[in-house]
Amino acid sequence: MVTSRFYNKVFHADLDSMETLIYWIISKINPAAFEEVSQYNIELGLEELIVNIIKHGYKENNGFIYFSLIQTDHLTKCIIRDQSSPFNILNHHKQSKACGSLESMPIGGHGIKIVKAAFKSLNYHYENAMNVLEITLQY
């Protein structure tokens, strides 16, 4: 039998809320299901997405980030919604040569690479005046 759990939370779209937001998400997924490196990459990927929403989506405007988590025994789906300007992070990235590990990448412009490396799947659409990013983590 598959067990499902659902969680919803709304956070202010500001950098001061980011640590609390990431902690909330990580506390809801099963950390024992991930290796230490995988959990670090998940946190890094989430941080990159949240910073993009705050800095490039809302810019200087106030707003909220809406999180939904749907969790089963073998996967977690995270749905991130925001009402900032339409922006598909999957279509915006710098073209550059591969440079090895995430730690060895030069700073700036590589957010999408970090995000794609952290998650099993990533989908974007714009619906009801909201950016909707669906992330899947598989254990």
* DSSP E strands, number: 5
Structural category is: alpha+beta
Q: Tell me the radius of gyration.
A: 15 Å
- The CATH architecture can be named as 2-Layer Sandwich
The level 1 CATH classification is: Alpha Beta
The largest pleated sheet is described as: 5 strands, antiparallel
The name of the CATH topology is Heat Shock Protein 90
Shape: globular
Content of β-strand: 25-35%
Query: Roughly what percent helix?
Result: 25-40%
Name given to the CATH homologous superfamily: Histidine kinase-like ATPase, C-terminal domain
- In the sheet with the most strands, the strands line up as 1-2-3-5-4
Number of structural units classed as domains: 1
What is the first-to-last residue Cα distance? 17 Å
Give the averaged pLDDT, no decimals: 82
* H and E order: EHHEEHEE
Low-confidence stretches: none
Per DSSP, the total helix count is: 3
